[in-house]
Model the fold of this input.
Amino acid sequence: MIKRRKIKGRKRKKPGRSHTTTPRATRRAPWVLIFGLIVCVIIVGVFLRWIFYTASDRPKEAKQSSDSFESKAATVELTQEEQIAALRKDEMELAGQALTEFPESDGSCMLMGDLHARHGDSTEAVKFWEKSLEINPKQFDAWRNMGQIALEKEQFDQAVKLLRKALEIRPDAADLRSDIAKALMDSGRYVEAITELQQEIKIFPSSFTAHFQLAEAYRQQKEYDKAIEHYEQTIRLEPEHRHSHYGLAMVYTRIGQRDKGREHLAVFRKLREKVDSIYSMRQIGSREYLVSLRASVVKTYLDAERLYRKSGNIAKSEQLLNRASEVDPNNTRCLERLASLYYTSNRAAKALGCFEKMARIDPNNPISYLNIGQIAIQLRMFEKAERAFRKTITLAPNDPAGYRELARFYLRTNTNIARAHSLAKKAITLGKSAETYFLLGWAADVNGDRAGALQAMEQAIKLQPTNQKYRQIYERIKNKN
Amino acid sequence: MRGSRTKTDRHALTCVRQRTRCGRQIVLMLAMVVVFCQICPGNSIVFRDVTKETGITFRHTDGSSGKRYIMETVASGLALFDYDNDGDVDIYFLNGEPLKGTKFDVPPKNALYSNEGDWKFTDVTEEARVGDTGYGLGVAAGDYDNDGDLDIYVNNHGPNVLYRNDGGGTFTDVTERAGVANGSHTGAGTCFLDMDKDGDLDLYASNYFDFSYEKHRTGVADGYPVYISPASYPAATDTLYRNNGDGTFTDVSKSAGVAEQASWGMGMVCGDYDNDGDTDIYVANDGAGNFLFENDGTGKFEDMGLMAGVAYDTHGDGQGSMGADFGDYDNDGLLDFYVTSYQGQLATLYKNLGDNAFDDVTRLTGAGEGTVAHVTWGNSLVDFDNDGDRDIFVACGHLLDNVDLFDDRSTYLATNVILMNTGDGKFVNVSKQSGDGMKVKLSSRGAGFDDLDNDGDVDVVILNSRREPTILKNDSPSEGHWLQVRLRGVKTNRDGVGSRVKVVAGDLTLHDEVHSGRGYQSHYGMRLHFGLGGREKVDRIEVRWIGGAVDVFKDIAVDQLLTITEGTGPD
Done:
């Protein structure tokens, strides 16, 4: 028993409670408390979620806002020349910063080298590419870039040597043999050039560049039949290839078929520009240059971003991508990378925003809609997802991806499963892959076509024999009564 | 001990061994030197810079004010010709004029320097009255009135000028009377030619574009302001004037067929490319297909450039064509074209195949060596070492005066290029071993090639943008023989412009033509020069006069300047 001492002159209060209670209030009190507690928890939860969800963004958003504000302010206040100077300074500082922060990285050397090359300083560019090769002798781009500089400077033996080094690293690199062939042809080594080009065509039979160069080599060797054959092949691959028409005109004239020569010259005349692009550098004014400079700056940002991402500095990576996006709001590469970053850091809604922006910039790109659809499903925005997949199909009616994903969507949401079946069938006619066969199997199964389902699953397993999921589903369908 | 050697013996043996080793090393070095000499072309062409000795004080201006008006980039040409008939070749330099925004205390003007002999020249501009203050771009000399002295036509940015040579060392501006002002185009190369074989010289003026200050703007290269390209201005049609025979000309551009297409005309040369006895016209167009106007014999022309394969390079790409010359580089009797061009492009050698066709043989012959890094201008196919084949000289220098800031593949100032003909249809770049004259580094434009000191080899005069000219004395150590031929027409035009000369010396047969106006907007070489190598006698000279008559001469001595008068004989 609890004894209570009465203190004279003071009434004793019990904490948290009214000193006077009624029986009804006493019965109601716990429920009020519980209700109050729940409300508090909800409020705190929402508050915490808001803090947590936007914690990493808010400072950046604020910074982005201020950056945007600054850049907008800059755009408004600076002349074009001042903008050019500011962007170039920006670019150079970023490259310098990357070099300082990643001194042992071939990537930072490549970044600086590429920047110098874009700004006409090939000597400095080569120094940095050479440095990158000291760190990573298998840096393909360094060998190739140096080879191309040597080619421009008519240092043909050096060009061949450097480009062949690049080829050792990536024997299947497109157009590399064509560059080697050019160096060989320009130094009069036509027989070797022909060998290189024949090899290029073996690997890339649709390379019109290789066919054209082969034609030119044969023309120089006066093997006119072979020259004609390859000029014509070039035109089949690229009907508006005016140089091939010129080459054919010259060949036909040499072999006395002047009428045919005139025909091809007539086509050549129609196709050629009145003034070739030799003076394009001197054609452009400040406005056009600013556009090309922005593209160059964005490339620097993207190259730098790759370095920071590789080192795990996602925050910096995101900052750079956002900045790049401000510099060139229409650059879809930035948006694509940003979307990827958001997606991998579980910010699907932001990723979705990026893909939607990409779709606005390039409304004819089906990939954007495909990505929109896939993310929208995750965010349970089903109508948006369905619309996006339909758009993918409209834009790329011969690509199985749109049909496949729409089929998957219907199957997952268990809506319109008959349509899912026909979509999966359509996808298979356009491209046979394990994943598409799997979807076909799934769709056939839910539509009661057991035989069809088993057949499709067998194909999926054939194409991906190690996929256990396919085997399990196959067994399940097989054992179903 | 048996078999042992004394200290003295050992010392002697060591010395012998050392001597033998030294000897072997010396022999090896000598062998290397011999091999090296055989590989390297050696110093068979040598130029010495004698500019300072000449007394020439001319300094070119492009009239620039920093606004970067495009015509500043293409100024100017020059003329080498004997203005006073005293037997030596004089020099006429073109000059710019103040453009909008520029002021000069003394207006710049063209300058005529009289050759006093022994590498001394005197400024006779004032006395001769040829100090045109217009913006000079191209020039040609020709005796349009057949009075025995060479007149001058200047193709300006703005109205052109025709100076009639009055004899006695003076000229009169007869532009208005002659009717050859040619409006206010921005001009380029110009040539005199007898297009209709009527015995007098007609006149072709190539036009670059139609400029106006209102249309002016600058370009941007990597953030730096640069001169805009010519394509920013409307192309202009060229002008062909027929000589009426009375001191006046008629514009026959349209009826002759040369004005059917507008383009950005630059250097030009006239010559008989198809060997049919009339004079055709080749115009280098900047950034567009070059023209080859084939003459039908009556002064009507059709552009055959594309069909003949001389409009573009071997791949069908347009070139920033600048200067054009016409000469037989491989001694096959067919004259070939050599055309200079922009940075990143080779100066191009088009081999004449006969049958109205040419092949771009630049790569095959090495005729573009050393040119791709530069903008190339004045040029010629000249036998500098008198060995019987034509070498190539190319004047170089960028037209973007700030290119060094944003493109390290080229430079504003550049040394020139000399390519030696090896005699088997190939060329080798001997610029680095051809004397101090090839070390001059300026931004060159027009170039002229003539025997300025009458010593039997061809010298060089170069006009450099914004600077003093370069005068190069040919000091080649060659002991090859030579022959120079000057023509005197009687029924044909007085200087035999358009006539073909064939020289046969033993196993060597050489062909050349008299041109008025050639290279980069310049004039030179009316006195034909033939290098004969070791041949000590000329067996035969054949002159095919424009208009058909042929004169033949036999057994001519070498190492002389021969003046051949039509229908008579050599003096």
In short: Residues 501 and 543 of chain B are 5 Å apart (CA to CA). Residues 34-41 of chain B have pLDDT under 50 and may be disordered.
